Amino acid sequence: MTRPDATPAAAPRSTVAEPIRVLVADDEPMIRAGVRAVLATDPGIEVVAEAADGHEAVELVRAHRPQVAVLDVRMPRAGGIDAAAEIRRTLPATGVVMLTTFGEDASILRALSAGAAGFLIKSGEPEELLAGVRAVAEGAAYLSPKVAARVVAHLASTGAGERADRREAARERVAGLTPREREVLSYLGGGLSNGQIARRLHLVEGTVKAYVSSVLARLGVDNRAAAAVVAHEAGLLPPPPPEQR
């Protein structure tokens, strides 16, 4: 029997993680329905709002504060790239994943410059959408394999002199980093989250976050995806996982 003066035991804390809150924006209802259906297959993701244009997307992000906004590049009133820039300027806690049709290379580079952390092709595999949303929610950058190939091809298609100039400029920017910052940048180039980098470098996640902030500031870029582009242009590749060495 419990004594009258005994302190009641505290209720056990729930270990169930809150779902990732997502906004989906596309002017085509069928595309929105398809994206929502794919995201619904993951119980750890919840679509909290849908928008038909970039202006509405920004307003709904302000109202719902999702962790991730999935935006179509081409929408009426305000396109996805303009919406991404406004979201990143005013609501930086919301990460942006862009959706586009295959081959819009200029849009990819413009979206990265606007602050998008993820970029996916609409014709890609559903698993890529889930992986992209989860990666961006965790603070990482995500380019689908097709997008990454297009970025590399676009950079490679420039003239030899321009490629050399970009490579040299990137190497000069990277040279200003400390050895540890260069190491962190190499992992950003590999698309790793702060937690993954912390495990690779045997550091606490808060320390990695500080290094990432320093790297972005020193490179003069606004987001991890842009830093990843610099890493690739400079030829800075992450070391393989321990089990692959």
SSE layout:
Layout: E1 20-25, H1 29-40, E2 45-51, H2 54-64, E3 68-72, H3 80-90, E4 95-100, H4 105-114, E5 118-121, H5 126-137, E6 142-143, H6 145-157, H7 160-175, H8 179-189, H9 194-201, H10 205-219, H11 224-233
Parallel strand pairs: 1-2, 1-3, 3-4, 4-5, 5-6
Summarize the structure.
The protein has 245 residues and is α/β, with parallel strands linked by helices. 53% of the residues lie in helices and 12% in strands. It contains eleven helices and six strands.
Detailed description of the structure:
This protein is of the alpha/beta class. It has a six-stranded parallel sheet with strand order 2-1-3-4-5-6, sandwiched between helices. Helix 3 packs parallel to helix 4, helix 8 packs across helix 10 and helix 8 crosses helix 11. The longest helix is centred in the last third of the chain and has 16 residues. The chain is globular and about 50 Å long. About 0% of the residues have low confidence.
